[in-house]
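Quick check before the chapter quiz. The format below is the same one you will see on the exam, so make sure you can read both the input and the output lines.
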Amino acid sequence: MPLLKKPPKEEEEEEGDPFAAHPESRYRRRATLERLVGLAPFARARRPPTKDGGSGAGGRARRRSEDFGLLRRLPGRRKASAEALGERPVVPKRGSLLRLAWGARGRRGSAGERPPEEEEEEEGEGRRDGDGGGGRRPEGRGKDREPLSVLEILELIQRRELVAADEQIIALEAECAAAAAAASSLVASSAPVVPAGGRQARDVALLYRALLAQLWAVLGEAVPAGRPYPPLRSVIRVLEREEEADARHAPGTLGRPRGLRRRWREAVGRAAGERLAQAAAAGAGLGERLTAVAARMVGDLGVVRRHVAPTYPPAYDAFGVYARGYHRALAQQLGAVAQRPLAVPDLYLLLDWHSNAYPREVLGHPEVGALLQAQALGPPLPPETQRSLESSCIAAVKAKVEVAVAQELQLSEDTWAEEATSQELQEGLATRVTALLRAHVDRAPQITPEFGMEMAHSLLGVLVAFLHSFQRKVEQFLEAPGEATPPDGATGRAIVLVNCCPPFRTFTEHLAQFGHPESEEPRRQAHAALDKVTRLCNHVLTQRLFEDLKPYFNKLMKRKWLTSSDAFDTIVMLITSFTQKLRPLRPEPYQVLVSEVHRRVLIEYVRPLLQVRLVCTSAKMRARVAARLGDEARQLRELFNRLDSASPWLDSVVPRLRELLVLEDTAALQMEVGVLVRDFPDVRRKHVAAVLDVRGLRGQAARQEILGVVRDLEQSDAEPGLPRQRAFFSELAVTREVRCLPFHLPRLARLSHLRLRRPHPRPRP
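Here is the expected output.
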């Protein structure tokens, strides 16, 4: 006898029938559906009995996910299945199962076509759907009722009845554990058993995965809501229930402990990362992105403080968890930015935001700042990452500035052969170069003092290399300025170049004051290069002056000099006229130049005296020479005082030499020589001997006594600590020492005349 009655012909071929390939396919299909729907309680034969002989909660078996696989793959077979149901005895409560498997309830047949038991069950399910308990069944027919199936639990999860779903999952997990224990006992007794626990374990894992997805979805929606969010209470109840379940299970239980509290903290961090990533994506540049991230972090933590954290029990430390989650998310954002190649402005921006803007705008916010500081979160970036960013910034700035200052030097050098303009006199090369360096020297210390010190040391090295190049180019230009360059143009250009030295010197000191332990040697090298440039420019500026003064210095210390002051007056006039051309000089190079002119003028003034062009033959003549020396020394002192010379020690050299001419006592002369050697440590015996020759001192004993003072001071190297750098007499060479004969010149002339006259021969007697 066939299992099912053959259906009519017109219903035999349906489009898409998976069983249409074989003549007997329609019978196999209906037999399978009847078995699934009503002929046998599926999965009972494969389920091991419990220890007490029952079959689960309420004495009924739980429907598992594998029982719905075929029905879910056959959504178009409802009509044939309904006819098959009409030919077979109606089994209670299976209509609800088919409804869950087929989909929507409204597509079922009319109420008259369904058995009364199915209508009653649907009414009961409708009551359960409206129940706030999340899937609790009425207690009237507890024995006939069965536990929720896997799909029903999944439906609870999708409707976010999370507490009820978690309760069912925990019960299903317990059944799975009981089935596994029964299977183990049957295996031990060698009884045949069909394994079913593996499928249940997979169902539990899949349901937990779906449950966690909904839990974390609710968690991610709580902060953007910006208000109290009631679904968050379900999340908290599930967390507490799972912690209780973890405590009930023995260590080593499969799937336990689930550690939902730890996973909750991780989910908070992921939600924070998503929120900050959304805020960062809205910004155009790095500055806008960082500003948006800071604003989002402050706003979200404010919502957490007002609405989210009060929902949690105090033991959860909800605000601390959220604060640490946002802090870690921010650290990940900044770390990702730090790994990318950044330009110098972005490096400065990132370092400044990390060190200053974040503590000021986030940790110092009036609403959440105090709570964040209590968490002791620390900096978002680790110290090694910050140091790496600083090193990258310093290297990038150094490379950029080296190219920029080299270009500035080349552009300036191209104009040196031209006439110096007023703009170059006011804003020279030094102004442009120091501006390039100052932009970074001023910016770096605002981030951290240590970063500023390292930046200053790096830029000091750049400046030293630039000054060496500047020195070489100045030497090449001023030593051979070119035939087309007029003398006045060379003078103006020398003024422009020497005016660069004070700003460079000042900026070098500024860089060295940052206190880097290795800054002293670069500082010394920078000053040495600037000193060479200054001396070379001063030589060019004063060369024409002393060429003009040379003829008039040659007229000094002669007999005509005693009666005429024309030569000296011309010297004073030329010096005054020369200083008028030095007005464009800056104060520092002007004082250096005037001091150098002061020193060289006095050297050229004293040189004729030490050349012994004039020898005093009487006390009256010594007085006239001493008076003239004193008067001209006074005029020179007044002249260089008006010119603001910074070398007043030079004013005493001529008065000291004058005293050696007017003093009569040998002891007084010895004391005056000692004072002269003290004030001018480079004076030697030949210099004093030349002055004694001008004085006309003939006595060898007195001369030796006076010169002995110089010899004694030379042997003792004078007094310790005297400034030997003030060179004066060392540049005055005395070619030979003149010895005064012990005769007056008129008597010597008469004696020579008598000896040279030939005697007349006497006539012989």
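If your answer matched, good. The chain has a mean pLDDT of 78.
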